[in-house]
User: Which sequence fits this backbone?
């Protein structure tokens, strides 16, 4: 994988895109939390959290999963909520203050270089994080290092593209129209862990035992196609960057094509409900 890209250039570009998209994720936090709650529940159950535990969330975004975990480790436990993008860290910190989470530490941290001592946490959570990293194997080795013996990792990563039209339809339209290029095989991205056996292989090679992989079906909802489009642009730094460079005519043409791509998911009342499927996995250190 490393030969197919410049990992440092990828990391810099990825961080820039997440910094730019953070405000959109903050604005749409409640919808994402609602539509992905079953994934959060699966991961928290799989992490086997107990009062007094220390739990680490990597690539936390707005930090909702880590804040849920913080409730499960009281009394006596704590959650460390981290992200590589400073703007995401600020969102998570504001959310922690809003809900009065006294046992939560929020800070910037790269998942590939976890700034914690060995064997210092009881569980690590990463919801759609590892798949986006330049070196997910390094991140999982770091995860294994900071976990105490018997500690748990729980993660989520998107299943194959055909099971996730919420994600792939808009990208397909943009590729077809020449607005962006397809990612080369083997590069990081939302579908990087969708190859059968990929998650099991990574967890095995990085020293984990008792590997469990399952799937959770989701439905992403929006009140209209306009709202669906606004959400996509607000939460994707890549899409936002492309849209900003379009002329008004190109923008209208792209919108028409995207609306057509999602037309089958529009309900009689005009609202949108698009299916998705995520893989979820857990293992023991």
Assistant:
């Amino acid at each position: 994988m490393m030969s197919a890209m410049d990992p440092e250039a990828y990391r810099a570009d990825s961080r820039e895109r997440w910094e730019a998209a953070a405000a959109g994720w903050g604005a749409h936090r409640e919808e994402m939390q609602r539509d992905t709650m079953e994934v959060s529940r699966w991961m928290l159950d799989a992490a086997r959290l107990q009062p007094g535990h220390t739990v680490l969330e990597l690539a936390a975004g707005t930090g909702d999963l880590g804040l849920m975990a913080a409730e499960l480790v009281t009394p006596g436990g704590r959650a460390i909520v981290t992200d590589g993008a400073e703007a995401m860290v600020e969102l998570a910190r504001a959310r922690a203050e809003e809900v009065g989470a006294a046992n939560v530490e929020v800070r910037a941290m790269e998942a590939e270089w976890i700034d914690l001592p060995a064997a210092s946490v009881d569980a690590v959570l990463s919801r759609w994080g590892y798949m986006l990293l330049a070196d997910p194997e390094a991140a999982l080795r770091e995860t294994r290092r900071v976990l105490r013996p018997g500690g748990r990792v729980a993660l989520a990563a998107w299943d194959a593209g055909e099971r996730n039209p919420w994600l792939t339809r808009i990208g397909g339209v943009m590729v077809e129209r020449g607005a962006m290029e397809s990612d080369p095989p083997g590069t990081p991205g939302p579908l990087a862990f969708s190859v059968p056996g990929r998650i099991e292989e990574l967890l095995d090679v990085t020293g984990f035992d008792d590997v469990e992989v399952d799937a959770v079906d989701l439905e992403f909802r929006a009140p209209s196609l306009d709202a669906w489009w606004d959400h996509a642009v607000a939460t994707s730094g890549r899409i936002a960057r492309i849209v900003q460079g379009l002329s008004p005519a190109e923008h209208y043409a792209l919108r028409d094509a995207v609306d057509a791509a999602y037309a089958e998911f529009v309900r009689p009342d005009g609202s949108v409900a698009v299916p998705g499927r995520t893989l979820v996995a857990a293992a023991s250190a």
Remarks:
- The two ends are 26 Å apart (CA to CA).
- Residues 7-27 form the longest helix (21 residues).
